[in-house]
Amino acid sequence: MSPQEVTTMATTLAEAGPAVDYAARLDHVSKSFPGPGGQQLVLDDISLDVAPGEFVTLLGASGCGKSTLLNLVAGLDRPSAGSIDTDGRPALMFQEHALFPWLTAGKNIELALRLRGVPKGERRDKTESLLELVRLKGAYGKRVHELSGGMRQRVALARALAQESGLLLMDEPFAALDAITRDVLHDELTRVWTETGLSVLFVTHNVREAVRLAQRVVLLSSRPGKVAHEWAVDIPQPRRIEDAPVAELSLEITEALRGEIRRHGQH
Predict the structure, then answer these.
(1) In this predicted structure, what is the pLDDT of residue 111?
(2) Taking the mean position of all CA atoms in its chain, how far away is CA 232?
(3) Mean of the per-residue pLDDT values for the chain?
(4) Phi, psi of 77 (to 5 degrees)
């Protein structure tokens, strides 16, 4: 993607709606589900803002409600109490790439453009630009089975970016990848976030991944999920998993996570 096209995309995101001081705002959000013996409280009184252009990672033990919270922000479910506001419709990227195997990489992205109402004559050029942005130039005609796991996630990222939302929600998108591929995609995501000015809310259970990527790490307690701790990550980008400041902060956060797990009697 050329510098002019990146600038155009960033401008489009900035002008998508009236100026607000948040990309997402959760105000005293709780969520319950029916279960044995009555309603089971999964999320309890969560208040959290994601600022425009901010990268926030949401961390916690398995079952603490991270994905449930992301689904609420995405509008896939409604909170039992409280309110959620977003600056426009969020884009969502899952752990599984969820690409249609009968479509090429390019056509998977074009589908998102078509649903957004982009004229047919413009879709190919926009798709090629998005593929270039995620370092997949020339992959337009490749089928899903021809792509590696990392390449599939890049296509999924390009498809999410095709929605031109100012807020990208990511639910453990690199969890199934090997360590080297995951590290490469950390670099790519950081680059795309920097170039586009997106706001990102990224769910993970990997502490070092959380610190590697984010400007702010939010730790949820074990069920019911509450905001237990927050850390500002004042480590310059680009960062590496093995960097000493990343390792040091990761150790502090890991101890807090272990404390939450012990406090709730989970193993």
Answers:
(1) 92
(2) 18
(3) 88
(4) -150, 170
pTM of the model as a whole: 0.86
User: What are 215-265's pLDDT values in tens digits?
Assistant: 999 999 988 899 999 999 999 988 998 999 999 999 999 999 998 888 766
Which DSSP string do the residues of the chain spell out, in sequence order?
--HHHHHHHHHHHHTSSS--S-SEEEEEEEEEEEETTEEEEEEEEEEEEE-TT-EEEEE--TTSSHHHHHHHHHTSS--SEEEEEESSPPEEE-SS----TTSBHHHHHHHHHHHTT--HHHHHHHHHHHHHHTT-TT-TT-BGGGS-HHHHHHHHHHHHHTT--SEEEEESTTTTS-HHHHHHHHHHHHHHHHHH--EEEEEES-HHHHHHH-SEEEEEPSSSB-EEEEEE---PSS--TT-HHHHHHHHHHHHHHHHHHHHTT--
Residue 13 pLDDT > 60, yes or no? Answer: no
What residue ranges do the domains of the chain occupy?
A: 3-90+167-263, 100-164
Query: So what CATH class is 3-90+167-263?
Result: alpha beta
pLDDT for the residue 19: 62
d(CA 96, CA 175): 9
What CA–CA distance (Å, rounded) separates 191 from 8? 16
| Residue 181 predicted with pLDDT over 60 | yes
**Res 11: pLDDT:** 47
